[in-house]
Amino acid sequence: MDIQYVLEEKGGPIFALAIHDGHQLADQLTPIMNLSESERLREEDPFTGMLTDIDTNRLIVNTSRFQVDLNRSIQDAVYLHPDQAWGLQVWKEEPTKMMLAELQRSYHYIQKILSLVIENSIQKYGYFIIYDIHSYNAKRLGPDEIVDTEANPQINIGTLNNKGIWRPLIDSFIKYLKDHRIQDQPIDARENVKFSGGYLSKWITSKYGQKGCVLSIEFRKDFMNEWNGIPHLDHIESLRKILHSSVSFIKKSYQNHYGSK
Questions:
Q1: CA-based torsion, 45, 69, 23, 115: positive or negative
Q2: Which of 250, 253, 252, 242 has its CA nearest to residue 53?
């Protein structure tokens, strides 16, 4: 029951993560899964892996968060109760203790990989910056719901777990997004409105926060139909290009504010 993932190391201090992109389940878990494919897909972050294709180091997790969630603490990483999973009853019967132990082992294995690549970046470049890419639903009531754009920004940047020293870099990144457009419209990018950063960013910054910043980038699911899963590929490509162009900007911003090794 290993977590399936793709890790590409291209060099440089920037990493793009899509830890909720995946939809795969281990064969041992499929018979006891209570949710349909569409129910799972709705709470996953499909197509976020495409947004990591920005010529940086990247990690895409192909295993579903409904198997094990890397953005939760180890105690909550397997959704055993509905209050851990948007009120959903995930399992027909709970995974066995042996299954849970295997899932926890796979969770720690990915953490170990992330630790190694972060430590290598610190050693080589003196710092790291992570784009922790996610998406979120804004039509909870149904596919025809009108999105409340005041409460649901196009892009939510979760930053709460970062050390205060990264404030200038965070402000520069948000301004960069606001200075760009999607489909000829200004981007509504705001900070810590819907989400402030999950457990993964908390875990990374608790270990390495003096040396790096985690930008938890949550895209409102305008780039797809969040009820049937159909993507809007042109929109996805527009978002990808903005992230891609931001990489050189964020490196320069770091050098301007903090100097370079």
A1: positive
A2: 242
CA distances, 55 to each of 26, 106, 215 (Å): 30, 27, 17
CB atoms within 10 A of CB 89: 11
CA-based nearest residue to 47, from 240, 204, 208? 240
Please say whether the beta carbons of 2 and 106 come within 8 A. yes
How many other CB atoms are there within 10 angstroms of residue 73's CB atom? Answer: 13
Q: Which residues of 127-159 are buried (b: 16+ CB within 10 A; e: fewer)?
A: bbbbbbbbbbebbeeeeeeeeeeeebbbbbbbb
Taking a C-beta distance cutoff of 8 angstroms, is the pair 184, 208 a contact? Answer: no
Number of folded domains that form the chain? 1
Q: How far is the C-alpha of 188 from the C-alpha of 150, rounded, in Å?
A: 10
Range of the domain at 176: 5-258
Are 61 and 111 spatial neighbours (Cβ–Cβ below 8 Å)?
no
- Note the pLDDT tens digit of each residue in 225-257: 999 999 999 999 999 999 999 999 999 999 999
Identify the CATH number of the domain in which residue 174 sits.
3.40.630.40
- pLDDT of 259: 82
pLDDT in tens, 132-151: 999 999 999 999 999 999 99
* Amino acid in position 100: L
CA distance readout (Å), 93 to 24, 33, 35, 53: 19, 8, 12, 38
